[in-house]
Automatic annotation (TrEMBL):
CDD domains: SET_SMYD. It comes from the Eukaryota. Residues 43-295 form the SET domain. This is SET domain-containing protein. GO terms for cellular component: nucleus.
Length: 325
């Protein structure tokens, strides 16, 4: 797998995004139980410009109802503050136990997750971000936690500071920018007090903070692990983003290019951890755009329109909205 930084710079240099997306999947030969497996084939999709919704994801061949279109690993993930002691600090898998809320360390579900998180978690541990956490907790903010994690990943060298630049940013109001500047001050001073070298946090400017948060606002997924049978999950097409039991939030590369439809043909689901699966809800023809539903599809038309306009900045003109449903 290419490091995040290299992956994104490859992205930026590729005019043909279809080709670029081949790099989001392992290009090396896999080994499993001593058996040599051939490299996974690229997913049957490409990213291209749509007529009115910016970039979107299109099928390169026919995809059958129920097919797994592709899986996606988070670029950055973080548990909800309320779930910090009950889910894996990296992959968000629910734990069979709840750790002591006074404990100094956070839980990982496996040695592998602990090992993978080790480098950036060492940075996180050095920094006393209690004031930042309190600020987020009292205001019910979840996305700043993803920014802090990304900052720690950049400092530890496992991510590049421009790794989210390719994603679409939200339009920010003056009020949002003011709020973000306050958060930024708290985060920056936590890093400075932790004696992290100036050169290592040179990227952590007000502009970087607002630009990353603006991208996370539009592209982060709220992750729920409802349990139950995989087949049952597939039947429930509505993305229940309003439910209260989110284990955390995460940002992905490829899923960030999916546009919205109130009657989607693709569903994004999480089964055991933050690794996402995108499944076709019906037959999709080659050339057709793949769309997911960003909100709870069971809401009425006015509620959907309001949420999409306020949260994502667009007026939905999908066939379902046009029909008045
Ligand atoms: C997660 S991004 C999807 C990819 C995006 N089109 C891009 O070019 O990166 C979400 C943004 O895409 C646009 N978008 C998504 N679905 C749309 C739709 N049905 N109609 C108009 N714009 C849409 C909106 O600007 C929204 O904020």
């Amino acid at each position: 797998m290419l490091p995040l930084g290299r992956l994104v710079s490859q992205f930026k240099n590729q005019k043909n995004l279809h080709f670029a997306f081949a790099f989001t999947f392992s290009t090396a030969t896999n080994h499993h139980d001593g058996v040599k497996l051939s490299p996974p084939s690229p997913p049957p999709i490409r990213v291209a410009l749509t007529e009115s919704a910016g970039r979107g994801v299109f099928a390169t061949r026919r995809i059958g109802a129920g097919d797994l279109v592709h899986t996606a690993h988070p670029l950055v993930s973080h548990p909800s503050l309320s779930a910090i002691h009950s889910v894996c600090y990296l992959c968000l898998r629910k734990l069979a136990f709840v750790t002591d809320s006074q404990a100094q360390s956070v839980p990982f579900c496996s040695e592998q997750c602990g090992e993978q998180a080790k480098v950036f978690y060492e940075v996180e541990r050095k920094v006393d971000s209690s004031a930042y956490d309190d600020y987020c907790r009292t205001r019910g903010l979840k996305y700043p936690l993803l920014v802090r994690r990304l900052a720690c990943m950049v400092i530890s060298g496992v991510a590049s500071s421009d790794c989210l630049d390719i994603l679409q940013p939200a339009r920010l109001s003056d009020y949002m920018i003011l709020e973000m500047e306050e958060e930024f001050g708290l985060l920056r001073s936590a890093f400075t007090k932790a004696n992290i070298m100036d050169g290592q946090i040179a990227f952590l400017t007000k502009q970087w903070y607002t630009s990353v948060l603006a991208r996370i606002r539009i592209n982060a997924f709220r992750i729920e692990l409802p349990g139950g049978l995989y087949e049952d999950l597939l039947k429930s097409a509505a993305a229940s983003v309003e439910a209260e039991d989110a284990v955390g939030n995460a940002v992905y590369m490829l899923p960030s290019f999916y546009n919205h439809d109130c009657d989607p043909n693709v569903h994004i689901i999480w089964i055991e951890n933050a690794n996402a699966r995108l499944k076709a809800l019906r037959d999709i023809e080659a050339g057709e755009e793949l769309r997911i539903c960003y909100i709870d599809a069971s809401m009425d038309r006015d509620a959907r329109q309001t949420l999409l306009c306020e949260g994502f900045g667009f007026q939905c003109c999908c066939l379902r909205c046009l029909s008045g449903d």
